[in-house]
Structure formats: structure tokens, C-alpha cells
């Protein structure tokens, strides 16, 4: 079977600055694939080239085997995109806007599909409200419906849950999973890393227009062997006890937090024994699980996303 999306040596510059730099990747039918990267990494530009919104400088994009430039009429129907910016037809009602978009793709008559989208995205009570009167969350739900109205085989979601409350985020992701189980391939970007970990079977990470990693999510997370143990102390320490130096002990938060490294073949029983012998004033012990943020930091020395923005 042909890949749902095949990108080869894709390039795009704006005023001499490379926004996408020799990007190649392939997504199989049925995948939920995450494209991550810090602000300005080139994710939206990539999506805009896939969907034909932005001209390709060089390289190719193939969608289910069809060239996105030469066969754009066909590929445009195969892809549904929810763009990052809320671009809506301000004066139209949801009902009218959905009908126009269905007409645009020649699927105006598929009422049952339209009804299903309206029902599953909770748009029913708002159908006759004009766009400009809708809340941000409702606009997002409308945009998901708009991206799916022509039953695309590849659904692309660029930050679908940015600024959306937790409940709606869950509902949107449940719906995306449902679409995926029904056969739709999904490419998504998000700054909520926990969502990417939960949703995506594979993840590509971009930085400065280039691909810096592309692996199964589990493999990407398993890359990091450098787990830490955080010891929260009741009373501050002046210096790291000598016995903890081999574990790269470090004091933080004015001596009230002691971080030790559990990298490599460190035996937990020995660590606990050493700690017991030291009789430290330990209030709490934390074993943070390394996530995509740490993987990216390890790969590039950069922060993948604003930490405040990555919590769910
Ligand atoms: N139309 C444009 N004109 C000029 N520069 C642009 C244009 N679109 C994007 N860029 C630049 O290209 C680079 C990549 O931007 P892009 O929006 O693709 O990144 P991104 O990974 O989607 O970031 P974010 O997470 O903030 O959405 C940035 O340096 C951006 O300023």
C-alpha cells in the first residue's frame, strides 16, 4: 500500500531564511503521527505545503501516491486540514459555512455524514449562530468539522487544542481516535507533549526546519536512560554528602532539593541503602518520568516547548 504521506527533500525559504530544510518523512495509512518542534521549527510551513496553501521551493509531497502539486485536484480531496489560525467566514453561520465547504468538495448531498459531525462535535445547538459570535472552543470544533466535511483520508490537525479547556481537549482527542479507528490517517502538531505521547504511535521532531528525530513514541521515550531521583528535604543541606557524589548529587532550591542521577546500571536497592545510612531529613521522594521535553533537550540542548504550555 502507498504511504498516506510521503515527503522527500522538502525545502521552503522566506526571504532567504530556511523555514523547512531538506525534510523527508513518510506516514503509513492508519497511523496517528505527531510532528513536534519548538515555535518556528517549520511545522506549519510543512503542513501548508502539504495542503497546497504554500508553494514548495523544492522537493516533493505525495499523498496516497499522488503528487500534491501535479495532482492537486485529487490530493486536495484526500486531505482535510485544520489550520492553526482560526480563519473563519465571520458573517456565516456554522450551518451555512459547512454547506459551502461541502459544496466546494462536491459532497453536499452526504447529509448523514454532516449530521454525524454536527452531533459528535456538539455543534447542533449553535448551527444558526454566526461565526463571530462563537466562543474560541466552538470555533475550534467547527474547524474540525470543516476539515472533515469531505471525508478526507488524511486528517491534518495543526495545534487543534491550543487554548482549549481540558474537557474539550479530551472530547476532541476521543473523536480523532474514533476517526482514526474508522480508517483516517492523522498527522497532528501539539504543544501539549503528554497528548502527543498518548495519541501518537510515531513522532517526528523538527528544529530549525530540519528533522532531528523520527521514531516510535515508545522508542523515543526509551532513549533517555538518564532518570533522576529528587529528594525534597525538610532542612537545607550545605553540601552534597560525599557518599552521593558517585550519583552526581546536586543541590537545588537553596539546598532543600537534592537531585541524584540514576543513569546506567545503578541498583535502586543500593541507592536506598546509601540514603538510609545518611539519615537525611527527607520529606518526599520523586521519580520524575522523562518525557519528550527531556528527549528533545538531550537531542538539541534546546527547550521543546514552554513548560507552562506543556502541562495538561
Ligand atoms: N509567510 C511567511 N513569511 C515569512 N516568514 C514566515 C512565513 N511563514 C513562516 N515563516 C517563518 O518560517 C519559520 C517557520 O515557521 P512555522 O510557522 O512553520 O513554524 P512552526 O513550527 O509551525 O511554529 P509554531 O509552533 O510557532 O506554530 C519561522 O521562522 C517563521 O517566522
UniProtKB/TrEMBL annotation:
PROSITE patterns: ABC_TRANSPORTER_2 (PS50893). The keyword ATP-binding applies. Residues 5-233 form the ABC transporter domain. It comes from the Bacteria. Coiled coil: none annotated. Keywords: ATP-binding, Nodulation, Nucleotide-binding, Transport. One of its GO terms (molecular function) is ATP binding. Belongs to the ABC transporter superfamily. This is ABC transporter ATP-binding protein.
